[in-house]
Amino acid sequence: MAKTILIVDDSASVRQVVSIALKGAGYEVITGNDGKDALTKLNGQRIHLIISDVNMPNMDGITFVAEAKKLPAYKFTPIIMLTTESQEDKKRQAQAAGAKAWVTKPFQPEQMLSAVAKLVQP
């Protein structure tokens, strides 16, 4: 059975590029336009990994990660932050909230898939 990955980014083009790379590697993909929208997707269905942007309207990525981690079904779901941000304090905040990895945009699909493969449990 395919593993399901939630992509959260306010940029439709980023969601599309990440979706194409993941679908090409055999993953199922669900998308959210921002943290608030993405939280509505966390409705108990099995999600194996979350990829989230940091800077988004309505609810930023770090707040989203913290909120997602409060939900019992997603407490242990690994999260990759995909962002243009590279400041150490942002990385620390994301890690403190529960993020496991940090990928900087622009990214190579292979780099993303490698990070995903490390975090998605078989």
UniProtKB/TrEMBL annotation:
Residues bearing the modification 4-aspartylphosphate: D53
| The keyword Phosphoprotein appears for this protein | yes
**Could you give a single Gene Ontology term from the biological process aspect?**
phosphorelay signal transduction system
Please name the InterPro entries in this protein's record: Bact_response_regulator, CheY-like_superfamily, Sig_transdc_resp-reg_receiver
The Response regulatory domain, residue ranges? 4-120
Instruction: List the keywords (alphabetical).
Output: Phosphoprotein
Q: What is this protein called?
A: Response regulator
Q: What organism does the UniProt record list as the source?
A: Paractinoplanes toevensis
Question: Could you tell me the gene encoding this protein?
Answer: cheY-1
